[in-house]
Amino acid sequence: MGNRMFKQMRFRLTLLFTSLMVFFLISFIAISYIVGSALIITKQEQQVVALAEEEYKEHRSELLYLHNRPYAMHTKKNTVDYRAEIPMFYYVVTKDGKIINGDESLPEIRKQLIRFIADWIPRDGEVRRETMNMADGTTISFLLSGKPVFQDGVHIGTIYTGTNITTQMDIIKVLVIALGIIAVLFIGLSIWLGYYMSGKAMIPIVNAFQRQKDFVTNASHELRTPLSILQSSIEVIEVEERKKLSDFSLQIFHDMKDELKRMTKLVHDLLLLARFDANTIFLTKEQFALAPMIDEWMRKCRMLTEEKKITCDASVPQHVVIYGDKERIAQLLFILLDNAIKYNVENGEITITVRDDKGKVEIEVSDTGIGIPPEHQPFIFERFYRVDQSRSRNLQGNGIGLSIAKWIVDAHDGTITVQSKVGEGSRFIITLPQIHA
């Protein structure tokens, strides 16, 4: 149990360290990508807007001239120059969509550009990003801007500009790939580093746990013999001197015997936990019926239930057979029944229900006791955990029983869960492998 606990703890620490490092790494990569791409695109946007301003100043008068002299429009020729050396273009377009002037480096995409700018009257500083298809199947990206020309509040034409940002977009794609490769490498490094750091962090915990385990084991062994001697001595004195003892003295002897029994059980449980941790307990599995075992434990617990006027019922199909260690399953049932009685109320109820469910057997032990607060339920199977310290002492609880129950269930490849409401009671549900008779 100890090794598995430390493995789980190291896994959680590794996951925590790795998650933190991956979070910071992804944040750094995301910020780098956003800032890098924003700087590249922003610079290009500024250039295309500046080009629109420049061409507006140069060609605005041309649109005004043609608008004021309509006859000149018929003689004006389309003069779009081809300039392969520049990745930009500009078109001077009338309100009717006729291009009267311009420069371009890719004449083959003019129709696509005209389709994008048709009926578009750009606002001041507005930029659009568009993607166009080339004849060879490749795509290119353009940033488009423009500046409309007005006369007396009437739109008479627009000067459109654009810049080819395909190279810049390719740079951004390469940046994404590079950052992705770096991310994969660093995630692998983060996992290794997280595992290494968690191992370092676990060393003092493992050492402290080992010292505690050794102390518990040694102390339990050392206490077992004196406790047995004390128990025997008290019983001998009580028998031999019974007639000489007063009622008060007899009560003291009775209380001493009860406390010795409790101490003996605690020592036994501690030794059992130590053996769990050392993996020195081996299960002897066999097929056996549950019904006789549950009937036997209900009969043994009848005196305790009668003291608190608790009604105990069981619904166990006779045909249900499980495959497990008979002694440990009996111990599991005793722990759950003991808790159901101990934390129940007077005139309460205990119900044991066994269900046959697709190759597994489900055992449910429910009570109408005081219940467990929701915030404590995730921890009740941890050793020495007690919901209410003072209440557990009054009821002679030591916080070990449910941790032993959890170990027994885990050793049988089963599960144990709890459902509880304060003031209404608790339901412990165990699922174990089953074999039909």
From TrEMBL:
<dbReference type="Pfam" id="PF02518">
    <property type="entry name" value="HATPase_c"/>
</dbReference>
<dbReference type="InterPro" id="IPR004358">
    <property type="entry name" value="Sig_transdc_His_kin-like_C"/>
</dbReference>
<dbReference type="GO" id="GO:0004721">
    <property type="term" value="F:phosphoprotein phosphatase activity"/>
</dbReference>
<dbReference type="InterPro" id="IPR003594">
    <property type="entry name" value="HATPase_dom"/>
</dbReference>
<keyword id="KW-0808">Transferase</keyword>
<dbReference type="InterPro" id="IPR036890">
    <property type="entry name" value="HATPase_C_sf"/>
</dbReference>
<dbReference type="GO" id="GO:0016036">
    <property type="term" value="P:cellular response to phosphate starvation"/>
</dbReference>
<keyword id="KW-1133">Transmembrane helix</keyword>
<keyword id="KW-0597">Phosphoprotein</keyword>
<keyword id="KW-0418">Kinase</keyword>
<keyword id="KW-0902">Two-component regulatory system</keyword>
<dbReference type="InterPro" id="IPR005467">
    <property type="entry name" value="His_kinase_dom"/>
</dbReference>
<protein>
    <recommendedName>
        <fullName>histidine kinase</fullName>
        <ecNumber>2.7.13.3</ecNumber>
    </recommendedName>
</protein>
<dbReference type="GO" id="GO:0005524">
    <property type="term" value="F:ATP binding"/>
</dbReference>
<dbReference type="GO" id="GO:0005886">
    <property type="term" value="C:plasma membrane"/>
</dbReference>
<keyword id="KW-0472">Membrane</keyword>
<dbReference type="InterPro" id="IPR003661">
    <property type="entry name" value="HisK_dim/P_dom"/>
</dbReference>
<keyword id="KW-0547">Nucleotide-binding</keyword>
<feature type="domain" description="Histidine kinase">
    <location>
        <begin position="218"/>
        <end position="436"/>
    </location>
</feature>
<dbReference type="GO" id="GO:0000155">
    <property type="term" value="F:phosphorelay sensor kinase activity"/>
</dbReference>
<dbReference type="InterPro" id="IPR036097">
    <property type="entry name" value="HisK_dim/P_sf"/>
</dbReference>
<feature type="transmembrane region" description="Helical">
    <location>
        <begin position="174"/>
        <end position="195"/>
    </location>
</feature>
<dbReference type="Pfam" id="PF00512">
    <property type="entry name" value="HisKA"/>
</dbReference>
<keyword id="KW-0812">Transmembrane</keyword>
<dbReference type="InterPro" id="IPR050351">
    <property type="entry name" value="BphY/WalK/GraS-like"/>
</dbReference>
<keyword id="KW-0067">ATP-binding</keyword>
